[in-house]
Design a protein that fits this description.
261 residues; mainly alpha; two-stranded antiparallel sheet
Length: 261
Amino acid sequence: MLRRAETGGNRSARQERPDRERRIERFTRAERYIHRLTSTLMLTLILTGAVLYLPSLSVRIGHRPTIALIHLYSGWSLPIPMAAGLFSRAYRADVRRLSRHTETDRTWLKKRGWRHERARELALPVGKFNAGQKLNAAFQCGAILVMVGTGTLMWFPHLVGVSMRTGATFVHDWLALAIGFVIIGHVWFAVNDRQARTGMRTGYVTRRWAEQEHPGWAAELADETAADETAADEEAGSRGEAVGRAARGDAGAREVDGRVH
């Protein structure tokens, strides 16, 4: 009996968990696959690029023509997942969010909102993405296009003159280094935020985390939920009224039939 009572108490405790512990969707399956494919291609480019650029690695690993082909086709494939993502409504909505910079974003950067404790002290209405994530997305998108363009010129040197090839090589090499540093920073922030990693892995985060790190987005979701519930209640009320009218009509018809007979 005691064990049963304890089990019932545990079940009640689980049922009474605060609403803030509920999980909410942050990324759809399509968005997660786009991120994984892009990350895989980017990692392939970094590894093959290091082999091609560093003589010590190139000599040790060998197969330079094969490595160069893998690097080339991985680079040309890099924009494909993001372009394919435009068929996803959720992905397009996130692209619009990432492209929209607000006064909150400027304040977030000015007040060093990338420090978690500082961000919570500021209590800014940060949306689904903070200013740092928006800047990272803008940089990576622009860098990918530049890297694909300069890499193509390096692979087909006959398309342009010597000065253009030299400039393309210079930009390609230094931009690759910058991308590497930005990716290290991106990974570092992800490692230090378990819920962010969970959101990208499973698609869901806790409401508590959303309210702490992205309160503007959490409020937006709450408003959408309230609007959906109101619409559902109104629809249920309309159906109830329709059923009531139909029932009254049937009763009236039966009453008329009774009088006739």
